[in-house]
Amino acid sequence: MSRLCIAVTGANNGVGFGACQRLLEQLSSEHQTDANPQFDIPVESKDVPDEPPQWSGLTLIMVCRNMQKAEAARGKLLSYLDRILEVRKAKGIVDEYGKNFRQNLVIEIEKCDFTSVKSVVDCARGMRTKYPYLNHLVLNAGAASFTAIDWFKLVIPLLLHPVISLTVASYIIQGIGERSEDGFGYIWQCNVFGPYIFYRELQPLLEAFHSRSDVDHHYPSRVLWTTSIEATHFYRPEDWQLVETNHSYEASKYQIDLVASQLEKQALRLEEQTNRPAKVRHVLIHPGCASTGIADNMLYPIMIYLMNLAFYFARFLGSPHHPKDPHIAGIAATHTLLTPIENLPNPQRHSRCLKFSEIDSEQKMLLQEKLTEVKWIRVIDPKDPPPPIKFGAETDIFGNPRVGVMRVKQWKEYEPESRALVERFEGLYKSLVSDHPEKFTPVPEGDFSPAADGPVVQKRRVWDHQDGYGSNARGSTYTSGYN
Ligand SMILES: NC(=O)c1ccc[n+]([C@@H]2O[C@H](COP(=O)([O-])OP(=O)(O)OC[C@H]3O[C@@H](n4cnc5c(N)ncnc54)[C@H](OP(=O)(O)O)[C@@H]3O)[C@@H](O)[C@H]2O)c1
């Protein structure tokens, strides 16, 4: 069988690194426990395999912006795997499978900065010349403009509702109006649009796997979009580059919820229309609350220590959302990548079987809203069509990992916005990339253009100063450097 080829963005650190560790650990074993079904859903097809496919090797691609950090992380990953294999050997386990896996493992590094359109396109096109196909893409890299803690907003809610306050960090002050060198909203480009372009440029590679002869329809290519428990509708659609909001992080994650849900909806619609399995599926994942580098620039070492203690405390109080350790948090990625696709609940088909393990019961949310001035959603009307879901890393009180589901909030209200966003991103992607071939590495020869189940875009929008399309909320053009 073919090699398994997985790309993970932001793989040198935090949750991305944890997910890579977990992938190595799981794929080096015949028994991939993370692939076990996590949800009690009626399986659509009776022939869902119990055993994982036997790949002939793994190519793990670490997509990072800093080569030095990436090289160091690659070294750590290889030593981590070697230690695992040694431990198995010391236990007297004859591990031919693991030895074989190690021999056939290749860890590659690709340089990419998501705040630069050129860097993203050149990286993806470089990958298209190097790899024949890509099984899965984990869009994990992300950043936040966290600057400080608003202690007034933290202390009282923390005393009254510790679990909620340790889960939803609405007391963090964030920078406003930060821009990338391309002239876009920095957090928006880094967390949402950069990953979108990356996916679109890699779409031919993801689809190429589907056209291979040994493809197993239980394991279609998957794009994992990393969101957050905190993903909320903080943004106003007119501030879609998130340069006016003081919650650009949460808003960027909510945009990810909307865009990924819309892409998945389109993939499923096409599946139904053509009666053929979708070539690429889109899955939303979140790591829960993990202790990583994302808030490093505003935390002193003592605060990081206290935060880690607080995460244990939240878990002790019953929170499932505090995996803390990035390696545990990585289970959301490993489960959704390694399990047969039929084991992932599909809201359109399994809504009645899902129990939402959310913290947002209406009462609690109203309370939180009052305490922190955060505008929260109301609980959905049970008569509404089931919203899309995201898969999150959870633990029990002892830190044993598992996967839970949450719904995408306010889907009914924001579904039209999700369509508008995909259309806007697609128009922008084309106006920046396809219409300016001279600015990028040429598309490799023999490559094919976006396939039939690419994003369904009703009408391509053209650059137009009149209708504001392509303008940021302050009215300046977004294409500085690309006109
Ligand atoms: N930690 C949590 O509790 C939590 C909760 C919910 C969601 N998440 C999400 O999980 C993902 C991983 O975050 P983390 O917590 O693991 O944070 P992290 O430790 O800071 O890791 C972020 C990764 O993204 C990379 N990155 C940042 N900006 C980039 C850019 N412009 N171009 C390319 N790579 C870039 C970083 O590279 P460098 O090392 O070079 O900076 C790093 O590898 C993010 O999408 C985050 O929003 C985290």
What does this structure look like?
Helices cover 40% and strands 12% of the residues. The chain has 483 residues and is of the alpha/beta class. The protein has a single domain (4-439), classed as NAD(P)-binding Rossmann-like Domain (Rossmann fold), CATH 3.40.50. The strands form 2 sheets. Strands 3-2-1-4-7-8-9-10 form an 8-stranded mixed beta sheet, sandwiched between helices. A two-stranded antiparallel sheet has the order 5-6. Strand 9 (389-395) and strand 10 (401-407) form a beta hairpin. The protein is globular and about 55 Å long. Residues 356-360, 368-381 and 448-483 have low confidence and may be disordered. Bound molecules: NADP nicotinamide-adenine-dinucleotide phosphate (NAP). The site of NADP nicotinamide-adenine-dinucleotide phosphate has 28 residues, from helix 1.
The Rg value, from CA coordinates, equals 22 Å
Name the quaternary structure: single chain
The CATH topology name reads Rossmann fold
Order of helices and strands: EHEHHEHEEHHEHEHEHHHHHEEH
Write out the CATH superfamily name. Answer: NAD(P)-binding Rossmann-like Domain
- Ligand catalogue: NADP nicotinamide-adenine-dinucleotide phosphate
Q: Count the helices. How many?
A: 14
Q: Into which percentage range does the β-strand content fall?
A: 5-15%
pLDDT < 50 stretches: 356-360, 368-381, 448-483
